[in-house]
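Backbone-to-sequence.
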């Protein structure tokens, strides 16, 4: 039995490719079972975040499993064979090391981000509950979580703005100078939205509006942030007054279109409007960014800030890599 990982991330694929392979949080267990069937493997876990989709497998022959899953995924998602160039293929110890780096935040757009640990844990839990894991992946993922905790405890890798949400707010401050007189609307009330809202409040945003398909969840987050909940069908009316819109809804298609923004322009008196789309698939139609006074940034735009953080933390990266190598050396796992 061999361990392998097939994946794509923000370094290997643009957002328009990544969004085709995105899997919703509630579908991860089902996707893990589908993965086993597609690759004719014995175990599988699917990880899907805004920056990556990765398929972890325990299979008899890695080469055959890679070929089967690439072919059948392309057929299922209806993409042409050129998409294969965006995937990375890792086997045995290289796949195990990669998972440890992902859980530790070393492979993230924002180095040391904290959200990825919980996202991977959720993906593994979904696969476990679905019956898609066995001895190999159970042992691997449990060791990876231990490595992730050790990295965060013994290094300074997560100091500074390491989450996509916080970096999005950093970018907003660079555009506006400060946020204390700004009004903000958040579309989506998930974990990413909550973290972004907390950062906005800490930077002094004057008003925060939260719109979500579940109004109860919007109210919950708005209360936590000292803001106001908006029914999802009414978010366009709030667009006339806000300065910043940060969107992360998890919808399978765009929800903000050029005509929505055009309708609000006159009432806004053509004031600048800043959109940050941190969703995959994207929430905001790229055509919105063509409007003269509108600034639109999707998640790939944050890569430059990530690279700056990486340069400042090279020493911490080396310390983390040592921890990962030490812990993997103790892992007696078939398939490595």
């Amino acid at each position: 039995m061999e361990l392998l990982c097939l994946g794509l991330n923000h370094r290997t694929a643009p957002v328009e490719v990544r969004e085709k392979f995105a899997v919703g949080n509630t579908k991860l267990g089902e996707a893990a079972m589908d993965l086993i069937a597609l690759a004719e493997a014995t175990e599988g876990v699917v990880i899907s975040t805004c920056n990556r989709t990765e398929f972890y497998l325990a299979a008899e022959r890695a080469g055959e499993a890679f070929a089967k899953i690439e072919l059948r995924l392309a057929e299922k998602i209806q993409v042409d064979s050129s998409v294969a160039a965006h995937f990375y293929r890792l086997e045995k110890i290289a796949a195990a090391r990669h998972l440890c780096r992902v859980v530790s935040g070393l492979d993230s757009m924002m180095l040391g981000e904290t959200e990825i640990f919980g996202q991977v844990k959720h993906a593994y839990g979904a696969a476990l509950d679905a019956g898609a894991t066995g001895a190999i992946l159970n042992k691997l993922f449990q060791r990876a979580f231990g490595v992730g905790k050790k990295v965060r405890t013994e290094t300074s890798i997560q100091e500074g703005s390491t989450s996509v949400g916080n970096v999005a707010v950093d970018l907003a401050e660079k555009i506006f100078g400060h946020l204390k007189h700004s009004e903000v609307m958040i579309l989506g009330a998930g974990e990413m939205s909550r973290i972004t809202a907390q950062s906005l409040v800490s930077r002094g945003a004057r008003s925060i509006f939260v719109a979500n398909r579940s109004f109860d969840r919007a109210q919950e987050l708005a209360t936590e942030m000292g803001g106001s909940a908006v029914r999802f069908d009414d978010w366009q009316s709030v667009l006339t007054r806000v300065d910043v819109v940060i969107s992360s809804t998890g919808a399978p298609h765009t929800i903000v279109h050029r005509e929505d923004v055009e309708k609000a322009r006159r009432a806004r008196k053509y004031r600048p409007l800043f959109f940050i789309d941190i969703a995959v698939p994207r929430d905001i139609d790229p055509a919105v960014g063509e409007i003269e006074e509108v600034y639109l940034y999707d998640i790939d735009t944050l890569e430059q800030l990530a690279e700056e953080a990486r340069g400042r933390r090279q020493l911490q990266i080396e310390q983390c890599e040592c921890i990962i190598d030490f812990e993997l050396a103790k892992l007696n796992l078939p398939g490595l």
